[in-house]
Amino acid sequence: MLIGLSIAAPVGPIGLLTIQRTLDRGMAMGLATGLGAAVADACYGAVGAFGVHWLIGTLQTLRLPLALGGGALLLWLAWRTWRAPLARSAAQAGATDLAGAFAGTVLLTLANPATILSFVAVFGALSGGLAVSVSPLTLIAGVLAGSALWWLLLSAGVAASRQRFTDAWRRRINQVSPLVLAGFAVWQGVLALRG
């Protein structure tokens, strides 16, 4: 559970997206976004827990296309966020919107080289002498639970404070968020091209 929590908690593009969507569309949308990341974390947890070294090697080999694809997705999200009007009501997210937010975040997190490298480092340390004596399924469930817990706490905390933000503040957040997302996309692309 601590592995999932520690990989999910640092604020990056997914955290920013969760915060922005929670402020704009409510807790359900923020939680759907975060749970998409939790499922992707569990997928990488499964790769590490089952010791699929060939897949880890393949993912490292595919770092550049994954980074560029993830960066393109971040730029698209930044553009959509920049153009979106300020939502007046948090109760606008329907089931299709929630499913889209969830699926998009799964893909974005799976394409994030930082997530891949985090899991490679954690599971590399576990297999290098710090091995745990739990089954792979328990380990995967723990990663999923820890990551999901973080996204639940983040979206609930932001939703609880949503009313404290005036429309002017929310408009500023909606203007800064796409710039930060675009910055993450460019940074991710530069790192991928360098390495």
Helix content: over 70%
**Which percent band covers the strand fraction?**
under 5%
Strands, count: 0
List the secondary-structure elements in sequence, H or E: HHHHHHHHH
The biggest sheet amounts to: none
Return residue spans where pLDDT drops below 50 for at least 5 consecutive residues.
Answer: none
In round numbers, the mean pLDDT is: 79
State the secondary-structure class. Answer: mainly alpha
Provide the gyration radius in Å: 17 Å
Number of domains: 1
Estimate the global geometry from the Cα principal axes. globular
Q: Please, how many helices?
A: 9
Cα end-to-end separation: 30 Å
Protein name: Lysine transporter LysE
Keywords: Cell membrane, Membrane, Transmembrane, Transmembrane helix
Transmembrane segments: 31-56, 62-79, 100-126, 138-161, 173-193
Subcellular location: Cell membrane
